[in-house]
Design a protein that fits this description.
The protein has 280 residues and is an all-alpha fold. The protein is built from 14 helices and 2 strands, in the order ααααααααββαααααα. It has a two-stranded antiparallel sheet with strand order 1-2. Helix 2 runs antiparallel to helix 9, helix 3 packs across helix 11 and helix 8 packs across helix 9. It is globular.
């Protein structure tokens, strides 16, 4: 019981620290360094024991409550919006939006390729950025993929995993969906690798981009989530399992022991690695 209370305290600290992102102080180098150091302390703290739990979900009761709220919000808002988007926006436009969203994430992928020591991945990412930026109408056409250079997303959560850090406990975030402590830290650090947010420091533009990416991702998941909810005895457990399998698949670049390609079930990525493997 004491261990669980201690772990919940650590997770509470994690959420408090994440709030700094919205405080307006994120442009201070001192604040950045302090927050990243404190978040690292959370990761290395007493929550390490949860790795022994196969579900890695010491906060399951709280997570299920948040999941239920997320699901209600999804059914009433996000899914109808995504459905309307698919039904009313031509395929060519949706493909262009999807390509543009991936193009904007290219600098983050490149930095994480470098941090992971993945020279080939960094070269491919840089090549994609230049080719699609120059000949692909600012990334709206994926010319590089047509030449065999496919998009493979990398993030700092994956980088931390490559460096040997454990995932930490599973967390269900309001609206944003499933994550864990390591991936939460990764998202925070990635926000500083994103030159778009730094150069275009306008909240309206930044949130418009996030909404566009969210609608695009939810539209891609319409069939996946509908099928999963319909066929699962425990929808929450199925989402948790798929999320953890998906992240393991991304960390190993598709070379793990997953028996089947694993669909992405969070709102911050695509199925690039699966598509890349299937095309080879």
């Amino acid at each position: 019981m004491v261990a669980v209370v201690h772990c919940r305290a650590q997770i509470g600290s994690f959420f408090v620290l994440k709030a700094v992102i919205f405080s307006g102080l994120q442009n201070s180098p001192i604040v950045k360094a302090l927050v990243i150091a404190l978040l690292g302390a959370v990761l290395f703290s007493g929550c390490a024991y949860v790795e022994e739990d196969l579900s890695n979900d010491p906060l399951e009761e709280v997570n299920r409550s948040i999941f239920d709220l997320n699901n209600e919000l999804d059914n009433s808002v996000f899914e109808p919006v995504a459905q309307a988007y698919v039904e009313n926006v031509p395929d060519t436009v949706r493909f262009a939006v999807n390509n543009f969203v991936k193009f904007l994430k290219t600098p983050v992928t490149f930095v994480n390729n470098v941090l992971q020591g993945n020279v080939d991945g960094a070269g491919n990412t840089l090549s994609r950025f230049l080719v699609n930026g120059i000949t692909g109408f600012a990334g709206m056409a994926d010319v590089a993929a047509d030449s065999g250079v496919h998009h493979v997303k990398e993030d700092f959560g994956q980088t931390l995993a490559v460096w040997g850090l454990g995932e930490g406990p599973y967390i269900m975030m309001p609206i944003l969906g499933p994550t864990n402590v390591r991936d939460g830290i990764g998202k925070f650090v990635d926000s500083f690798f994103d030159p778009f947010s730094t150069v275009v420091n306008e909240p309206a533009v930044d949130w418009s981009r996030r909404v566009l990416a969210g609608v695009d991702t939810r539209a891609e998941l319409l069939d996946v989530l509908d099928d999963l909810e319909r066929t699962s005895l425990d929808y929450y457990a199925a989402i948790r399992s798929l999320y953890r399998q998906r992240r393991s698949d991304e960390i190993t670049n598709g070379e793990g022991d997953a028996p089947l390609p694993v669909p992405n079930i969070s709102f911050d990525g695509e199925d690039e690695k699966r598509d890349n493997r299937q095309s080879n």
